[in-house]
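Quick one:
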Amino acid sequence: KWTGVILLASLTLLAIAFVHSENRTTTAIATGIFASAVAVCLLMIASQDRPFAGPFAVKPDTLIQVMPAAR
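Output:
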């Protein structure tokens, strides 16, 4: 899945570069914005890869509070 996401991002960056190839400033701005968005998305996916372990772990406190009420 990681290879697919990175390959798709690379192909999209290449397409953006081809579309804006006439103006280097526009190409730099467009690829910079998209590359930043890809980096944020990859970081978010990586941080939530295992939601119940690691530094960004989701604690079950809220679920434990709601559980008795659901019975």
